[in-house]
Write a structure and sequence with these properties.
The chain has 116 residues and is mostly beta strands. It has helices spanning 42-46, 79-86, and strands at 5-8, 21-22, 32-34, 51-59, 65-73, 90-91, 95-96, 99-100, 103-111.
Length: 116
């Protein structure tokens, strides 16, 4: 059973540039410019176990992820590598009315056999 896991790179706050807005209120959905894959847990890979983690994260007005948390996971062993990977992602700055703003979004991070 998965409970809840949060990973932070900075202080618990509204983040750089003010309170993040939901990505749906941006002028367009920001594109990831750096999006590395998570490290697949060796024991799960050997056992042939695949799965996913839904990670919610916040991005500052320059496009850097500064806070990430797992909302749901098919296996708790996937949580830490998924959150660590997302914390290293970078995006195009989110823009609202043409101005760069921090934003929040959630995505599934997949762990598929045959990938690492």
């Amino acid at each position: 059973t998965f409970d809840h896991y949060t990973g932070y790179t900075g202080p618990e706050s509204k983040g750089p540039g003010g309170r993040p807005v939901d990505f749906t209120s941006l002028d367009k959905t920001p594109r990831a410019t750096v999006q590395g894959s998570p490290k697949y847990p060796e024991n799960l890979k050997k056992e042939g176990i695949a799965g996913s983690v839904t990670v919610q994260f916040e991005v500052d007005s320059s496009g850097r992820v500064y806070r990430a948390e797992a909302l749901h996971a098919t296996n708790s062993s996937f949580v830490e590598p998924a959150v660590r990977a997302v914390l290293k992602w970078h995006f195009e700055p989110g823009k609202r009315n043409g101005r760069a703003v921090p934003f929040r979004m959630a995505v599934p991070v997949e762990f598929s056999l045959g990938t690492s």
